[in-house]
């Protein structure tokens, strides 16, 4: 695996690969890799000649400094995992290379950036879009791969790419889950044993909500039931459970087949999110 820490060196390498007509798949990450990320790498490897994975913990998408400070950093293990699945290129730039001076351009996304994750993490999506735009310009991939676990992020990236005419096709890959249903996430590494068991409440709540919807129960009542479920367990906190249209997340679904359930909250200090398409 080729490893690059500088934009200029990566660009020089990739342009030599592009002249021999190699297709490029790109998997942007913040490291602390798990099987969910490896599924993205494997999908990219199947569909492209060369796969580039980036590891960069992007400071501009963290509204909480503690969250940034505590974000797990496991570069050695990440490198081993990437090698084990045959990733061809790893790009791990420094903060100074990506942000040589404080960025002044802000991207905004209307209602999409103010609901759910945007409401609880103000500025988060502007930061995500800023770094994704930079990385897409640097790598210029044919395909870029994102996990469905960050469903709202996926919608932001799709909006970015379509409104600004990026020449890349965005691929989404279904959420990978642990055997008990917990969505794989780098943040799970921060859970202790008890918290790890409690964390399955997010997936259980999504399944409960889906079942109650199929029984014709109103969504307001379902939100109350899920809140009550969270209140039975000390140390867990529900931030939101919402239902939205898969197409844009900003409107209520007309029929349940168009709907996605989204949930977020805390187990101890660790913030977790999950979602479930009602067609799943
Ligand atoms: O999903 C992530 O890991 C990050 O938000 C991303 C897309 C790599 C941007 O920093």
In short:
This protein is of the alpha/beta class. The protein contains 11 helices and 9 strands. Pantoate (PAF) binds near residues 29, 61 and 131.
What does this structure look like?
This protein is of the alpha/beta class and 280 residues long. The protein has two domains: 172 residues, HUPs (Rossmann fold, 3-Layer(aba) Sandwich); 88 residues, 2-Layer Sandwich (Pantoate--beta-alanine Ligase, Chain: A,domain 2), CATH 3.30.1300.10. 40% of the residues lie in helices and 20% in strands. It is built from eleven helices and nine strands. The strands form two sheets. A six-stranded parallel sheet has the order 1-4-3-2-5-6, sandwiched between helices. The chain has a three-stranded antiparallel sheet with strand order 7-8-9. Strand 8 and strand 9 form a beta hairpin. The two termini are 36 Å apart. It binds pantoate. The site of pantoate (PAF) has 10 residues, from strand 2 and helix 7.
Largest sheet: 6 strands, parallel
Can you list the ligands bound to this structure? Answer: pantoate
How many angstroms separate the termini? 36 Å
Query: Can you tell me the CATH topology of the largest domain?
Result: Rossmann fold
What is the radius of gyration? 19 Å
* Arithmetic mean pLDDT: 96
CATH architectural designation of the largest domain: 3-Layer(aba) Sandwich
Strand content: 15-25%
Order of helices and strands: EHEHEHHEHHHEHEHHHEEE
Q: Report the top-level CATH class of the largest domain.
A: Alpha Beta
Helix share, percent: 40-55%
What is the spatial order of strands in the main beta sheet? 1-4-3-2-5-6
Task: Provide the number of structural domains.
Answer: 2
């Amino acid at each position: 695996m080729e490893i690059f820490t500088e934009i200029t060196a990566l660009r020089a390498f990739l342009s030599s690969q592009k002249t021999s007509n190699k297709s490029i798949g790109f998997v942007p990450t913040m490291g602390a890799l798990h099987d969910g990320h490896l599924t993205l790498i494997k999908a990219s490897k199947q569909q492209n000649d060369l796969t580039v994975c980036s590891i960069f913990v992007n400071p501009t998408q963290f509204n909480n400094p503690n969250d940034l400070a505590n974000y797990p950093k496991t570069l050695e293990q990440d490198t081993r995992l990437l090698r084990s699945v045959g990733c061809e290129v790893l790009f791990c730039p420094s903060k100074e290379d990506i942000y040589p001076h404080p960025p002044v351009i802000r991207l905004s996304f209307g209602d999409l950036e103010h609901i759910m994750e945007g409401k609880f993490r103000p500025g988060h999506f502007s930061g995500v879009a800023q770094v994704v735009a930079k990385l897409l310009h640097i790598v210029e991939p044919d395909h870029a791969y994102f996990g469905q676990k960050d469903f709202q992020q996926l919608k932001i990236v799709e909006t970015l790419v379509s409104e600004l005419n990026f020449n890349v096709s965005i691929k989404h890959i279904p959420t990978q889950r642990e055997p008990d249903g917990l969505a794989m996430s780098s943040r799970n590494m921060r859970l202790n044993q008890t918290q790890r068991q409690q964390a399955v409440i997010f997936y259980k709540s999504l399944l409960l909500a889906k079942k109650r919807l199929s029984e014709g129960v109103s969504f307001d009542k379902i939100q109350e039931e899920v809140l009550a479920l969270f209140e039975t367990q000390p140390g867990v906190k529900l931030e939101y459970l919402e239902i939205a249209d898969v197409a844009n997340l900003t409107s209520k679904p007309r029929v349940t087949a168009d709907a996605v359930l989204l949930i977020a909250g805390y187990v101890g200090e660790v913030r977790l999110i999950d979602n479930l398409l009602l067609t799943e």
